[in-house]
Amino acid sequence: MRARSRSFLLWASGVDLKLLTVVPEETSRFLGLGSANLMSAAVAGTGMAFALTFTGVWPWLAVLGAIMWFAIETNLNRMIAASVQGSTRGLASRLFIVLPRLVLGLLFGTVTSVPLVLRIFEPAINAELGPVEQNAGLLARLQALDAITERSQVALGANFTLLLFFLVIDLLPVLLTLLGLFAPPKRDERAGEIWEDTEIKRLALDQAREERRQMSEDELEYQRQLAEMLERLGPPGGKGTGDR
Fold it and tell me: What is the pLDDT of residue 40?
């Protein structure tokens, strides 16, 4: 079970497992990155479930939407992480890969963070709406929350802090990847080249072994043909098997 969890976290990190055979000391870092990716995707999926619930859809559709959003977020995080891990490209080219995901993360994070904040403020929102509008939709709840924050500076600060908190969680994998671009070079950044060099050497060695094996087969074939020829010629001074 532990091995499966470890493999799943490494998969979620987007790391090429071949690189870990070259730099196994980086495994713990990629396990942490995989955990961050899954945590971010889980928060985003939960926010999407709440958002769909506020629209009045069936609960099983909200759960299905949460699972789909979790899968989308996980694969987006893996794609970005995998595109820069073990890469020796320049900083500008790697920033070009990460920044679009950061913009998307801001958009997605806002969409999934707002329903989480609404759920936390639900008692105050229900009191603001009154008993008649307890099943109000998403827009009515946003208007009620806006009215609450206008009257209370504490509620305004709490609303801003919670939005920022959930937004950072949603962006955590991208932020970690972005910060890693400015960190001192790690061994896995050279692991790709090391692996390629190792593969070239392995292929060359395999080719040399195949050539030796082919030479051995050719030599055996030559010896077999020579033995057949000697057998046909017969012993010295005698008649060969081919003589009449």
Answer: 87
CA distance 78 to 241: 74
Q: Are residues 240 and 127 in the same domain?
A: no
Residue 67 has pLDDT above 90, yes or no: yes
Quote the domain boundaries for residue 48: 2-186
**232 and 151 both lie in a single domain:** no
| Burial of 80: CB neighbours in 10 Å, binned 0-12, 13-18, 19+ | buried
More confident call, 206 vs 142? 142
List all residues 6 or more positions away from 95 whose beta carbon is below 8 Å from its beta carbon.
178, 181
Same domain, 196 and 166: no
Task: Decide if 44 contacts 73 (C-beta within 8 A).
Answer: yes
Q: Is the predicted pLDDT of residue 93 greater than 80, yes or no?
A: no
Are both 139 and 46 inside the same structural domain? Answer: yes
